[in-house]
Amino acid sequence: QVGSYYEFYHQLSDELLKLLRLTPLTNNKRNARYGFPVRKEDYYKQLLLKNGYSVLVVRETGNSYCRIKE
Questions:
Q1: What is the pLDDT of residues 7-63, one digit of tens each?
Q2: Positive or negative, the Cα torsion across 39, 59, 64, 66?
Q3: Are 35 and 8 in contact (CB under 8 A)?
Q4: How far apart are CA 39 and CA 45, in angstroms?
């Protein structure tokens, strides 16, 4: 999670991109490739679980150590 978005930083499989209906992001400072708003988390979690994927959610807490957020 970065602010109010969840971001992906690696290339996703074509199958996963089709399932999630994600399109590549334009160039950005963090080099995120795909993303979606936090408010859509439940939708994407249920979609992934329903299709046999495991889900791990990493949330931003606001605490940071050496410029890395906890």
A1: 888 888 889 989 999 888 888 777 888 988 889 999 999 999 999 999 998 877 776
A2: negative
A3: yes
A4: 11
The rounded radius of gyration (Å) of the Cα atoms in the chain is 13
Chain position carrying tokens 């400072």: 29
Give the 3-state secondary structure of residue 17.
helix
CA distance 52 to 47: 9
- Residue 48: how many CB atoms within 10 A of its CB? 15
Measured at the alpha carbon of residue 63, what is the angle toward residues 37 and 53, in degrees to the nearest 5?
40
Give the closest residue to 4 by CA, choosing from 41, 52, 53, 46: 41
- pTM of the prediction? 0.71
Partner residues linked to 63 by β-bridges: none
